[in-house]
Amino acid sequence: MEYRLAVKQIKQKKFLPIYLCYGTEKFLMNEFIQFLTYEFIDPVHKDFALSHFDLNETSIDQVVEDVETLPFMVPNKLVIAKNANFLTGTRDKSKIEHQIEKLEKYIHSPVDYSVLVLYVIAEKLDERKKLVKLLKKQNNIVSFSPLKPNELLNWVQNRVKKNGSSISEQAAEAFILNAGTNLQSLAAEIEKCCLFAGAGQELTIEMIQHLVVRSTEQNIFILVDEIVKKKLNKALTIFYSLLKQKEEPIKIVSLIARQFRIILQVKELSSKGYSQYQIASQLSIHPYAVKIADRQGKLYDEQNLIDILDKLAELDFQMKSGQVEKSLGIEKFLFKVNM
């Protein structure tokens, strides 16, 4: 089940007895669990109606026992258990022995006064396992995959609106370009910018560029975008800014090469008919990064990209062997690729 459908059902007060949450979008998963908690548990009952467990420290049979225990002084209870690694294909490194038969029995006959939430940060579940098949059959599984590019744009715009401000689609694109695709970081930067702008005000591109704190990786992401657009002055400005932040030139070259390698890989996979979402999964990068790389790749043929990567490999060797002054070497590279 897609998480938006689960949210819709919860808003209608249609609660499932069990939710198995999995995926790599941890921020969305945490927000979903908080929303479920708010909707299912009266805040005044929280101390008696809410239990938390870590399945790396507690067995699933003990969790099920708690779920089945009648609530004390409250009408219902919510039991949340993290690190349900035994439902994935990864090796469970904890020393806890889980009697999964007890969970299987409970799935077939859940109590009506409790909701059990199992969650795990994992790209996928092991669908060969009996428990996973059973939970999938009963539609108890909620997935939290990375947002697609258009979904991420909508998420940013809705988050800004929730914080009392407004933002255009173009400015939302700029926000993602500057802040990255990590939802937790985006949420924090959005809150900061909205506080600065004031209630009812619009977030502008200029404001975003002034206020958003960019990581080294995000600076490189924008630097490469400026290289692609043949905007040498902007590329040099970002490079000099990185030097002022004491970033090592060899690391800068490595990150530039990584970004151009992604552009080449996206171009190659796109030519073979892969969708952007399939490419994101194949390369283990965010779908939004694939969207940008796909757009950038259209401005080069494959040989151009290979030549750029060769230049970066040669520059890396020259820098490490002392044949060229590091900063000067990067400046020359930027001039060459902008010719």
UniProtKB/TrEMBL annotation:
GO molecular function, one term: DNA binding
GO biological process per UniProt: DNA-templated DNA replication
Reaction catalyzed: DNA(n) + a 2'-deoxyribonucleoside 5'-triphosphate = DNA(n+1) + diphosphate
Ranges for domain DNA polymerase III delta subunit-like C-terminal: 217-336
Ranges for domain DNA polymerase III delta N-terminal: 19-144
Record GO cellular component, one term: DNA polymerase III complex
Domain of life: Bacteria
EC number per UniProt: 2.7.7.7
Keywords associated with the record: DNA replication, DNA-directed DNA polymerase, Nucleotidyltransferase, Transferase
InterPro entries: DNA_pol3_clamp-load_cplx_C (IPR008921), DNA_pol3_delta-like_C (IPR048466), DNA_pol3_delta_N (IPR010372), DNA_polIII_delta (IPR005790), P-loop_NTPase (IPR027417)
Family statement: Belongs to the DNA polymerase HolA subunit family.
NCBIfam families: holA
Protein name according to UniProt: DNA polymerase III subunit delta
Lineage, opening ranks: Bacteria, Bacillati, Bacillota, Bacilli, Bacillales
